[in-house]
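Hey, resending since the last one bounced:
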Amino acid sequence: RNPHSVFFLIGLYMLLIVLLFDGKLRQVMVHGIDILCARILRICPNQIVLYFKGKGKYFVLLLLLFSLSLMNMVKKVQEVRHTTPVFNKWSHGRFIDPEFKSILLELRKDPQDRIFMMLSQPKGSSHLVEDQFFNWVAMKSKFTSDKAHFYLDPAMFAIADERLKYCQDLITSLNQGVIVPRDTVAFLKKNKVNILLPKKFVALLEGMAIMKTYETYVIMG
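The structure tokens again:
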């Protein structure tokens, strides 16, 4: 019945609405807040009135601005979700060359979601790296993630740890110019992982088929 807790619940409610709804976001949010506020006023009207006489009005103003910002963000996300994103100077610097960028945008147009490892060589480097920013650009699922996300789920933590191990084995082998171990290749194939990488590394991925060829890149799987 603490007013601070009340407004925290309202904010939490708004966040859940943003995550669960899109088109009817405003109607659902406004209607739900009306019901929630009516219920709150019945439970602790005196505390709410006192809070509004103090600092409450400033908090409500911030809450309103926060809500409008969230609604605008959801609208923008819906607008660019299936279109080419607007790349700024920062993101342009992540691309290796125009061909690599065009491949990602071509993959983006493919409605089928596939698991990808995007391997590239940053400017001025001879080593391959995986940059999951490219998965976002291509709108394709990534295979690895920070295993710390699963620290409350031992089974998922073990899966994430195993994936990171094999992917690191892949990248290390390619950078050292040695054949990728068979168990690594078998693991990636078993999990239907597609790999986008420069052509010159194809010979090191024995057992993987070339799915598509570009001028200087290939997709293997």
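The CA atoms of residues 104 and 172 lie 24 Å apart.

Sorry for the duplicate.
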